[in-house]
Structures are given as structure tokens and as C-alpha cells.
Amino acid sequence: xxxxxxxxxxxxxxSGQANEPLSALPHALAxxxxxxxxxxxxxxxxxxAEVTTRLEKYGKNELDDGAEVSPxxxxxxxxxxxxxxxxxxxxxxxxxxxxYIEGGVISAVIALNIIVGFFQExxxxxxxxxxxSLSSPTAxxxxxxxxxxxxxxxxxxxxxxxxxxxDTVPADIRLAEAMNFETDEALLTGESLPVQKEANSIFEAxxxxxxxxxxxxxxxxxxxxxxxGVVFATGMTTEIGSIAAALRGENSKRxxxxxxxxxxxxxxxxVEAGALTASDFVGRFLGVNIGTPLQRRLSKLAMLLFGIAIxxxxxxxxxxxxxxxxxxxxxxxxxxxxxIPASLIVVLTITMAAxxxxxxKRHVVVRKLDSLEALGGVTDICSDKTxxxxxxxxxxxxxxxxxxxxxxVSISENPIDPTIGNISHHEIxxxxxxxxxxxxxxxxxxxxxxxxxxxxxxxxxFLNIASLANLAHVHKSENEWKARGDPTxxxxxxxxxxxxxxxxxxxxxxxxxxTQRAEYPFDSSIKKMxxxxxxxxxxxxxxxGAVERVLESCSTICGPTGGSELTEGVRGQVLENMEALAxxxxxxxxxxxxxxxSKIDELKVPEREIVESSLVFRGLVGLYDPPRxxxxxxxxxxxxxxVAVHMLTGDHPSTARAIALQVGIMPSNMTSIAQDKAVSMxxxxxxxxxxxxxxxxxxxxxxxxxxxxxxxxxxxxxEALHRRGRFVAMxxxxxxxxxxxxxxDVGIAMGLAGSDVAKDASDIVLTDDNFASILNAVEEGxxxxxxxxxxxxxxxxxxxxxxxTLLIGLAFKDKSSLSVFPLSPVEILWVIMITSGMxxxxxxxxxxxxxxxxxxxxPLKVGVFTREVMLDMLVYGLWMAALCLSAFSLVMFGFGxxxxxxxxxxxxSPQCDTVFRARATTFVCLTWFALFLAWEMVNMRRSFxxxxxxxxKYFTQWAYDVWRNQFLFWAVVAGFITIFPTLYIPTLxxxxxKHTGISWEWGIVFLEAILFFAGCEIWxxxxxxxxxxxxxxxxxxxxxxxxxxxxxxxDQSE
Length: 1054
What we know:
The protein is built from 42 helices and 28 strands. The protein is of the alpha+beta class. The strands form four sheets. Strands 10, 11, 12, 13, 16, 17, 18, 19, 20, 21 and 22 form an eleven-stranded mixed beta sheet that branches. An eight-stranded mixed beta sheet has the order 8-28-27-26-9-23-25-24, sandwiched between helices. Strands 1, 2, 3, 4, 5, 6 and 7 form a seven-stranded antiparallel beta sheet that branches. The model is unreliable at 1-12, 124-136 and 435-442 (pLDDT under 50).
């Protein structure tokens, strides 16, 4: 019953909803009304009997595990895909005709693929376990008037729960009372700062999760104060429960019947839905409609090649009057095998596995092999802000002191190290500063802060407040800076430490200069905090807090000539300066102080209202969560490679917009964009979520920044991009990112600051939490895609060559009027599996091309099979086939007697000697072509002899290029060496390969090899001429990167 209840609420879940629907969402109701509707008691809590009843009705406060991963199902999925089935059929045919060598090789390939795929998938699905581990093990509740501690799982709907600093919230709770209470919701909402909660506030129903200040969420942590509230959602009904449901949820595998507006449907529509469902099942079974674009295309290719193989076999049988002679059947099987790229899957799997090892060295852990090739096609990156684009820590960026100007701090790699980063002084007020681009004409970089402090009493007083009205502790321990306390306090303390004004300097244990006498803590209703410090000469009140509230307590403002009255006009100017800093994405606080006329008695501390009055306004401080130093360069590189970057964050719009401008997600030249387009670049989740899917699709452009995001918003954005044909990567580190990470084509999680949930929901994990490492992943994905394209082209060109050689070779009839094959079945498999398999792996290990990150993402609809690849496949394949047939004909008819003998497909005899020598010559030619083609494929357009056009080694550069990829080099060498045993070892040559040793025929082989190289080089030269012509027609390379990246916005504004 409990499980049933949980399932029902999870499927009907609405963000903010209670276990049972109330008259409105909990955050939109007063606490007394909620208590009445829920049946809660705000004084004594629930009774033991009520707890038992509700536990039976709603189930335990736990996340539903969902269906367990079945090893059997995973194993079936490894077998039930098109390429594996084709290989199984080829294996069966091989064993059926007694070709045990071919059958054994294909069996090994199948086993390798199934084993690798099984373990990859089996280890990937553990998201729900990490979600469950986030829940608090115990919670403090009030029942029957007594406060008791119970396991989190026993919390029920309507319980009265108490939480304090350090607690993990056990369920979704509507606050009844809160004392100086803050929670950290970064993992759920993306908010970089702890959220101040307000028990008595009531909000609109459509308020986003991050702005529901009267609600605390399951698995968030309490950072300050204490609170009491009523549980309104447990288990899968909580916000984190809805995330768990989204992670576990799967798309329906059954097509819905198309109905009329009234709900009716005609009989044929049921038949249509059933047929589509059946076709979807077959497609999933064969792998042609699941997986990444490359996987789907390879599955379709396998089915196509299997069909072509059958057609080829039928052609062979037809050309021999459908004789049931064993030789004819062997010829048909050989022709069919020639069209099956037997080594493709194993080469693809091993290449990708090797790619994952390369990625570890580049700070990227690949959890799913297919994400590597998918990265190469990414067109959009949707990134969380906090901890991903930014450092996830607050720092002071600017401080303004009236009459003195702005003190700015440069970006630092370590926000808590006051020795890193430069300070500049700008002698103007923030409202006079250019918001988009800070002027540097009147600013000076300060090399020694002592110069700023010299004769600067206002700065000293400002730093006193920053240092002493502050509970954070920043210190150096074992050559490393460490900090503890509230993030905002830490940032301000670090700023003071830059001037050697650290709190410990003034309040140390030995002979302290300042001694604290009183503290008035921050309160949500007052929005400021104050302390009273005393020295030998002075007793001072030091205050910091929200600008408006501090100004209310001030009567004087400091200035170049001393204090002056804080008039309404001056107050207005201060607020303008505050707005100027806030527009840059800074969180602005005000600092003030006042000298007391006498010392105070700690036992008789003055009233707060008296202390916090007639203060002197000392200035403003602007804080923000700074971008990582490498982020701007990484975003620029993304734009250069044709990848758009979107920011989806739980932070405020102004902050999100400022960071987006700073890192280049939005263009710096905003004045060139029409106002309506500029406004649409930044949207809030409230604005975006109110739009229907059709309205979103009707937008000319999707926003670059969405602020105040909920998990649902992120998923809808990804789906909107999908509907526009985009291939999306999502980065994130919090629980709130998990559904979107799983829904994205490539989910990228942060390894250091990321939650286990985000990691388990992702495809790849960045071990250094560096946004720039995404470029490493994209580059590796593109390198992998290029290399896959190269070895697929190499392999399929050989298939075409073999098939054409055998099909045209049907014309070679022996005395029994049966076709004599120019290549035997074992020769074909030897070329595909042994000769080509290792060089194909070598191509998979090729280094990235120099221009790989200057290209646009490869088109997903086309995939690896571009027009160029398809044409190359035909040209190389037909050229190899022509040369192979000419080699066979020269030996057989040019220098031989033309006697094709009888039974030469089956065994060796003296009359078959010429046939066996011609077949051996053809086999060696094809083997050499396959090996040389691998080297030609290192660069699909440049000459083999000039792959480095800027090199001055005009005649020897090719040797350096060949040696650079040593795996490919030794694979080709091994291919040359292994030819000789197959030719000259008795029994092996006549019985297995059905050819014999050659002598003078080597002259034909060398001539054919020269012709092959010449043909390849001429074709590449023709391609280079064509593409150069196309580039000139398009205007060449010259193009402004920003205009290129934001062309859609600029074009529509002109």
C-alpha cells in the first residue's frame, strides 16, 4: 500500500505540491491554514497513533528504488543489435560450410563486443543509490508534545520538525518559525549563496523553487540559525523525489493512438499505433533507433550490407544457373562475406576504449563509450553557472569609498588567497563608470598596498569594518590559505587581508589592539549586523548589511573633506552607485561606523536601536562568484568551433547576465543588437516556463541565459533545442542538474564539487571541475569521430574492392562452366580481420588534425557518411578492384595459358597452378592496397608525401609522418610480413588460402602498387582543388569571431 501511494504521488507530482493536494500550494498558504488542512499541531505535533496511520497511508520517507538492473536484460541488449546479429549469421554460415577458421575469428569478435558492452552498461546505472544516500539519517521531531529523534525514513506527512545549524533537512517543510535561519540549496536550485528563509511570508503559486523563502527542501543543509516547520511532502513527493522520478523515468515504448478533440478514434488509427509500436520494438531490437547517431547509422549499415551480401550471393548463384555444386556455394559465401565489415565493431570498441584512457590524462573520465563520438557532434552546451563557469566561491570585486573612488580586485585562481590578484584604484564613483567596459584611463595598478593606506584614514576605517564586523576566519596553515565561516564574510575578510588588515592582526590572543565588547547578529527583519570593539583609545560601532537598511541608520557620509550630512540628494547618489555595481552582477553591501563617546559595560549592552543610529556611511562593497580564469577562453574556443554556449542557472538575472557578458556567452557589442533580441537573450525561469512548447518553438532564437532555473526549466530547454535539431551537452554539479544531465545527448558532471547524483547521471565527468576541460572532451570527441570516419572509409572501400572483384570475376569460367573466384573466402577474411584490423586500430589512435577545433560540428543527420566519404569509398574501392582484376588477368591470360582448369575453387592440382598463382598475386595486391590505403587515410585530403604543408622537409616529411603513429606503422609492417607465411608455408597456402607461392609475379605487384599510389594522389589533388575553389566562393577564412558566433542575433537586428 505504501509503495502504491508513493507511486501515485510521484507520477502526479507538481513542484511544491504536498502529499495530498491542498487548497493551494504550501508556499502560497499561511502556516495556520496549512496546519488545519494537513491536520498538524503547531504546538505538540502528531500523536503516535496519527504517525502510525500516516506511515501506512503514505509510506516511508524514502526514495523509490525503481526497477533493479537485470544482468540478463543487459546481456540480451548486447546481442540484440543489427551488427552483432549480422556477425552471428556470418558465423553460422562459416561453420555451415565448414570454414572453421572464419567462424572462429568471427566468434571471437562477437564475444569481445558482448563482454565489453555488458560491463560498460552494468556499471553505469547507480543513480538511485546515491540519491538515497543524500537523505539525513535522523531528524528531530515533536510528537505528543515531546521532542524526539527518529530515523528520517519514519518522518510522516504533517510531522512538526525542528532543524538547526549543520542538519540535513529530512523532508520538504513549510516553516512555522525561523530564527536567523539560512539553508544551502546549491545542489537543488544552483543558488551560490545560502538562502535566508522567512517563515511568515506568503508567495504566489507560480513562484520558482529558489524563491520560496517559506519552504525548506529535503537534502538541503542548514547553514545558520534554527527553525521549526510542518512536513508537507515526503519520499517521492519532495522536490528531490521528483528529480529521482525524472532520472528513473523512461519514455513510453508504446505509440499513442491519435484521437480527435473529443477523444474518439477510428479503428485504423489503433492499427496504425500498433504497427508503429511493433516497428519501434524491432528497431530497438536491431539497434537502428536507439543509441547515438553513429551507433544507429552503423546498425542500419549492417542491415544494408547484410541485404547487399544476400543479393551478391544470389547474383553468384544466378550466374552459375543456381547450381548446387559446392564450389558455387563457396563462391556465393565468399562474395557475401566480402560485404560484411567483420572487424568494424571490435575496432570501434577498442578505439573508443583507448580514447577513454587518453581522456583520463586530460582530466575527463568517460562513463559511457558512446559519448566520445557524440561529443564531436555537439552543437550546444548548456552549462550551470555556479561551480561550473564560476569558482563557486564569493569574492570582493569592487569596493567604493566616498571621495576616494573604487578599489577593484582582479580575478584570482584561489579566492581565499589574499596574496593572489592585483588591486587597482579608480578615482570615480561606480555610477560614473562604464558598465559594459570599464575605463582604465584614470585607474592605476597598485603594486604596494602600503601606498594606498598612506594618509588614507577613510580606507583604514573601511577596512576596520570589513575586518572586525566579520565572523569569518582566514589564515595560512602549512603554506596554504584556509577559511571558515559564511561565504560573504570570508570574501570580505580576504579583501581586508589584501591590505594586511586581517582580523587576527587586531584581535590576536597576545596583546590584542581591538577587543570585542558586544555583537548584534544579522537578522532577516533588520538585514544588518553590528559589533562594538574597543581599543585603548577608541570605542567604535561597526556595521555592515543591506544598503537601504544601513543608510536608514546613517546621518553622515565620509568624504575628502571629512564627514558631511547625508541628505536625500546624497542618499540618492549612494543608491545610484549601488545600482551601478548591482548591474555588473555584484551583490552589494554597505559599511558604516560610529565613534562612541565612552566605553561600554559588557553586562549592560546598549539597545540595538541606540547603537545602530547616527552612523557614518563608509562605503559599499560588491561581491560576486567569479568566473574561473579559463572560462572566457574556453567559451571563445567553443564559439570558434561552432558550438553555442547557454547558461542555465539558479542565480539572479542581473548576476547571470553580468557573468555571461564577462565570459563571452553574450556578445560584448550589445549596442549592435536590436532591443527585443537583446532582451530575449536573458530570460527568467518564470518567463520561460509560462511558455508552451509551441510558443517556445515559435521564438526566433532560444535564450542564451535563463536565470532562477528549476530542474524542469533545464529539461524543457534541452527538449526545445532537440526540437530544433540541436545536439546538446549539459554540464552541472548539483542534484538539480541531474535530470537535465540524463536528458541531454551528452551529460557532463563536475568531479570535485559535483554530487554523486550528478556524476551517476552523466556520460562524462570532469575530474578538475574545469569548464575548459570540456574543450578537451569535445576535441577528443572530434578526433575520435574523424578517426572512426577514416577507418570506416578504409574498411568499406576494401569491402567494395573485394565485392566488385568477385562479382566481375564471375566472368572467369572453368571447364565445367563454373565461376572461379579471384579471391578465396579465407583470403577475404584475412584482409578484413588480420591485414586491415590492426591498421584500422592504428587509424583510431591518430592525433587530432591541426584545424580540428576550427571546424563546425559535424552534421548529425549525415554522420560519418558524408558525400565526400561516400565518393571516396567508391573511388578507392573501384580503383582497387580494377587493379586486382588486372593483376589476376595479367597472370592468368597475359603471361599464363588462360587455362582455368576444373575444381580450382576447392583444391590444388597441377592444372590449377596458374589459377592459384593468379589468385595469390591478386591477394598480395589487395593486401598491399589495404595497407597503403591506411597511410593515405591519415589525412583524407592532403598528399601522403605532404601531410605537413608548412614543413621544409620536402622529400622526407612522409617518413616522419609514417613514424609518428607507431602503432599504425608496426601494424602496416606486420601486414607486409604476414603475407609471406600464407604464400610459402605448405598446406597453409594450398588447403587454407587456396593459393600458391609466387616469384616473377612480384613485378606485377610492385607495378600495381605504384599505380594505386598514383591514383590515390591524383584523386586527393582533385579534391583539394575543388575545396579550395569552394572556400574562395564563400569569401575565405576572414570573419569576425563574435559576429560569427552571434550571427543570428546580429542578422536579425540589421
